[in-house]
Amino acid sequence: MQEKIFEGLSKFGLSNYEIRIYEILILKGPMTSTNVVKETGIPQPRVYDLFGSLERKGFIESSFEKRKTYKAIPVSTIMEREKKWLDSYSFNLEHFVQNKRSFSQNNGSFLSLLEGKDKVTEKMISLITHTEDELILSTSFERFGELYPYIQELSTRNVTMCIIIFKEQRQRLNQIIQGNCFVRTMSGKPVDILISDRKSCTMNIEAKEKEEDVALYFEEDNFIHVISYYFNQSLWKYATIFSDQINDKCIRFRTIWLACDIIEYFLNSGVKLNSQLECYYKDDYRELEGEIVRVEKIPFVRNTFFIRTGNEEFSVGGKTSSIEKLRMLYLKIKPELL
């Protein structure tokens, strides 16, 4: 009866027998040990050890009666639990490696050169396609037309998008972007920057000997931090509002200045902001839920919001902040009209 889909549970440390038991219980409902033996063919002496192992791993639970009944934990509960553990582990492991590695990260292959319009556009399309939470983009009117189908598809996943389009007065923007999208326009020579989930970035560069596009692609955190603030202070701050649209009840952020801009807008409009925050407290990964109550911004010095949870209030800065109580990794806000 075992389907191949259940074989993936081996990644969670389940043996073949354990997978068979979980499969039966999740598909056919709670059972006694006798019925599990009949359904699976697993020898009776083994089944109780397997039940104990599955309970310790959090895949099943048993009743308190003398003749126990065994029940499978819902798939969604297991996956959410494993996701939280994996997120916490991966963030802590990354932090440990960054502090303990014995070689310079500059020796890594995080930086590459993209030469030619097609390669640059292809890389930008790839980053857009794989964005999960937040897209920051500035580009020319012409290239925006090429990227638009992929941006439009991204909007259906309610990714937060912050877009600047360089265009001349005669050029008309007819494309409509749904979802959580904040669009600005600018005139002048286009600056092509794309930051995906604050993890990956492309930026065009001047190349006097080459007429075609040349861009850098990098994943290094400090580089992305600098480019992000350049985008904020040199472009976003001076761009003209074209359209602001919010279609989703939850808005997701990875970048502190963008989060503070949108939070400030909501708070000034009298909106209550419930939030879920993933962050570092000192060197530890934390998850918090609470209400965002205010924002403090000082250009190039501070982008901070304050979250209240219970009787405590915490200041939240960016991933590289050294002065705030918490360092933001991921933020989800839920606007609620008062």
Terminal-residue CA separation? 53 Å
* CA-based gyration radius: 25 Å
Tally of DSSP β-strands? 17
Q: Which sequence of strands runs across the widest sheet?
A: 4-10-9-8-5-6-7-11
Give a quick account of the main beta sheet: strands, pairing sense, barrel closure: 8 strands, mixed
Proportion in helices: 25-40%
Topology record:
Elements: H1 16-28, E1 31-32, H2 33-40, H3 44-56, E2 60-62, E3 69-72, H4 75-100, E4 111-115, H5 117-130, E5 134-140, H6 141-155, E6 160-166, E7 181-186, E8 193-196, E9 200-204, E10 214-218, H7 221-235, E11 240-245, E12 251-253, H8 256-268, E13 271-281, E14 284-298, E15 302-309, E16 312-317, E17 326-337
Parallel strand pairs: 5-6, 6-7, 16-17
Antiparallel strand pairs: 1-3, 2-3, 4-10, 5-8, 7-11, 8-9, 9-10, 12-17, 13-14, 13-17, 14-15, 15-16
Structure description:
- With 338 residues, the chain is α+β, with helices and mostly antiparallel strands.
- The protein folds into three domains: 70 residues, Arc Repressor Mutant, subunit A (Orthogonal Bundle), CATH 1.10.10; 137 residues, Endonuclease Chain A (Endonuclease, Chain A, 2-Layer Sandwich); 87 residues, SH3 type barrels (Roll).
- It has eight helices and 17 strands.
- The strands form three sheets. An eight-stranded mixed sheet has the order 4-10-9-8-5-6-7-11, sandwiched between helices.
- Strand 8 and strand 9 form a beta hairpin.
- Helix 1 packs across helix 3 and helix 5 runs parallel beside helix 6.
- The longest helix has 26 residues.
- The chain is elongated.
